[in-house]
Specification:
Elements lengths: L4 H20 L4 E2 L9 E6 L6 H16 L5 E5 L1 H10 L3 H10 L6 E6 L2 E4 L13 E11 L8 E10 L2 H17 L1 H7 L3 E2 L10 E2 L1 H20 L3 E2 L5 E3 H7 L16 H9 L4 H9 L3 H11 L19 E3 L4 H9 L10 E10 L15 E11 L4 H18 L5 E7 L11 H17 L4 E5 L8 E7 L5 E10 L2 H4 L4 E2 L5 E2 L2 E6 L4 H12 L12 E5 L5 H13 L4 E3 L6 H10 L4 E5 L1 H6 L1 E6 L3 E7 H13 L14
Parallel strand pairs: 10-13, 15-16, 22-23, 22-24
Antiparallel strand pairs: 1-2, 2-7, 3-4, 4-5, 6-7, 8-9, 11-12, 13-14, 14-21, 15-17, 17-18, 18-21, 19-20, 24-25, 25-26
The structure holds one RNA strand of 75 nucleotides.
Length: about 650
Amino acid sequence: MPMTPLEELRHSASHVLATALLRLFPEAKLDIGPPTDSGFYYDVDLDHKLTQEDLTRLEAEMKKVAEENQPFLRKEVSREEAKAIITARGQERYKLGRLADIPEGEQISFYQNGEFMDLCAGTHVRYSSKLKAFKLLSIAGAYHRGDEKNKQLQRIYGTAFPTKEELAQHLERLDQAKLRDHRKLGRDLKLFVIDDEVGQGLILWTPAGSIIRQELQDFIGGELRKQGYQQVFTPHIGKLALYKTSGHFPYYKESQFSPIVENEALARIVTENCACGEMIARLEAVSAKFREDINARTGKEVITADRVRPEEQLLDGFMLKPMNCPHHIKIFASQPHSYRDLPVRLAEFGTVYRWEQSGELNGMTRVRGFTQDDAHLFCTEEQVAAELIGCLALVKIVLTTLGMTDYRIRVGLRDPDSGKYTGDPANWDKAEAACRAAAQTLDAPFTEEPGEAAFYGPKIDFVVKDVIGREWQLGTVQVDYNLPIRFDLSFTGADNQSHRPVMIHRAPFGSMERFCGVLIEHFGGDFPVWLAPEQVRLVPISDKVQEYGRSLLAQLQAAGIRAVLDSHSDKLGAKIRRAELEKVPYTLVLGAKEAEAQAVSVRSRARGDEGVHPFAPFLEQLKEEIRTRALPEKKQPAPAA
RNA sequence: GCCGAAGUAGCUCAGUGGUAGAGCAGCUCAUUCGUAAUGAGCGGGUCGCCGGUUCAAUCCCGGCCUUCGGCUCCA
């Protein structure tokens, strides 16, 4: 695919960076330097740890290279010539490997600017003087070829634009984005806290944040009732045996919290002088019968003989649940089902726990304990298509109601080269076809991505970006032919025979934590009235109208409105300012003339002062705005601070 | 987990080898005010934690914890 002019510019900037880098650090070994969505980077192997000051020096050197107005010259060479060039330049450490990646028969080319020459398919700007606006942004570690078994290189990130104005605008946008960061707004608006003593990645929802979450849960709960879901509740833990049946353990044990082993069993193991490794082996072990049962049900060897142990050496324990499905499956399995009962749709806001690597934790968007707005649908194969469409419709209702229109749809398929998936390929094919067909019913573009499936089945994900451009999977719908087999689920068909149901896993929000994190950034803290923790601020101008304020507060609360009376002795301007900073949608200013007329002076967060209105119609209009879950109007620019 | 950076009051940040300061926020008092900051006073910090060097460490050194930017991972 040819590069866009902007990519060409940024790619050229990365060559200029490499040119500057070799001038300052001739011993540097270069890897690759491609353009990205918002700039470019170059990966380099260098013993010297690059510092912020080095970036400044490199940027200055890049300016010189740009001013030297070097032409970018393409040179097409044979594979042998290429090797010679790389070796002559002392860059064989990574570049020879990169050269080997180029398929036989494909043209090998170098680009030269000034004294620098790099293996590169191109393309580039004609002259380095085209680079008028660039900036080096940060240094980060990055594994060679993205593989953590390889050496970690230093990655220099930068960005470039055709003009200085566009660069300045971009940098300004980055600064603005920081103000919308859910971690900052979450603290400022007191929506959630994370406490070291409680634990990394564990969200404590404060009263204000809990209101938002509760409103979202009530909203989706209403939609679920319309669609025939049934609410269930299940505990936060389950026995290890349950997850051995489901396949979560031991295959995914590195992303789960350690098992909780009963004290007596633990004591017994300790007195046997059992080593740690032995204990893990016993936790992972299964009985011969368990192995036979599962293997027979799934029709292949999912549990190998080396996991079988004598009964007395088995060790069970409990696990914090990494998913809700096994619990829901057990509810389904507790009753015989007729085809007439299906689909069965079991829904729960279920909290799950996953052991995320410490370096991956991020505010509310990547956490170790989170609550999925989960549901599992058990249906016949014929019902899958319609149920999938119903699930997708639900996701769309959620996103539309919240005005989140900037998302992409990803159909996650299995990676044919990976062994991490369980189940029969024929069922996978059916499930993937069903997902593709359902995605086509959405009138929105989607991409099919191999390797993005869940381990038990393909899925349709709704992916949105946060303020700094990182993508997060929110809503998800997944088809599963495998867990019904592993748990030996069945229903009685019209033919009076036993049949296997198909499962659909779906979560329109995904996780309440991640969704709220993204939602905070989406609204920049200016929540629609129905979600706003505080909907109305009552501001009496003086103590003389406190009594009127109290009576309005009582009326608002009686109407179910979340209102607060500001009885500080500040001047009006200070109270207005405080309400604005706290992003309260409506501030009602109360003075003598309002009290006299049973009126309020309305100040809207979006529109500013709206003048005096009688209280009763204001209240009705407010209730209507809440009932319809109206989205906030675009805010007028704030006055200069 | 890995690479790099950071951690001083609730928040934003200054500062020094001799046990710390500002603004905002909070509290008290005065003020009773018409659409983004009324004034005065007061309280508040084991300078992330643990060790080491030193007569003395918030500052220098080491380890750990946490956060941030990436990488890897994300059933």
